[in-house]
Amino acid sequence: MSSSTRDTRDVDHQLDNRYSTFQEAASEYLIRHRSIIDVLSKIQESSARVNRSVVKAVTSCGCISVNASRQELPSDITYWEMKNYMSTHLDGEMCEQCKEVLELELGRTLFYLAALCDLFSLKFDEVIEAERKRVTALGMFNLT
C-alpha cells in the first residue's frame, strides 16, 4: 500500500470518527425535541434560518449583494465548460460576522440532520459517504 493511499485512508477514518462523534452528540443532547415531528420541524426551521442569514447579509449588513439575471451561455460549449460561464449572482464577500452567523445556522441544520439519522438508526457518516459516491458516479446527471 502506498503512502498516499494510507494517508487518504487515515483522513477518511478521522472524518468518519468526526461525523460519528457529531451524531453521538446530537443523540445525547437532543432531549426536548426528540420526537420525529420536532426533529422534522427543527430541520425545516434551521434551513429557513440558513436562508435568512444570507438574506440579512444582503439586506441588513450589505457585505454581499445579489445581481441576478438570465445566465448567458455560448452555444458552442460542452456541458463541462458550462461551469466557467455560470454566475453565482453574488457580488462582494461575506463579512466575518455574517459568515459566523451562516456557519452557526448551517451547524444547527447539520445537528438536526444527524439527529434524524439517529432516530432512524442511520449512520450520518455513511449517509454522507453514500451521497458522495452517488454524486461522483452520476456526475452531470446528479441533480437533474
What does this structure look like?
Strands 1-2 form a two-stranded antiparallel sheet. Helix 1 crosses helix 3 (96-119) and helix 2 (36-61) runs antiparallel to helix 3. Helices cover 64% and strands 4% of the residues. The mean pLDDT is 86. It has 144 residues and is mainly α. The chain has one domain (19-141): Helix Hairpins.
What is the tally of helical segments?
4
What's the arrangement of strands in the largest beta sheet? Answer: 1-2
| Rg from alpha-carbon coordinates | 19 Å
Please state roughly what percent of the residues sit in beta strands, choosing from under 5%, 5-15%, 15-25%, 25-35%, 35-45% or over 45%: under 5%
**Architecture, according to CATH?**
Orthogonal Bundle
- CATH T-level fold name: Helix Hairpins
* General form: flat
* Count of all domains: 1
Could you give a short description of this structure?
It contains 4 helices and 2 strands, in the order H-H-E-E-H-H. The protein is mostly helical and 144 residues long.
Task: List the keywords.
mainly alpha; two-stranded antiparallel sheet; Helix Hairpins; 144 residues; 4 helices; 4% strand; flat
Give the topology, please:
Elements: H1 3-29, H2 36-61, E1 64-66, E2 90-92, H3 96-119, H4 124-138
Antiparallel strand pairs: 1-2
Helix pairs in contact: 1-3, 2-3
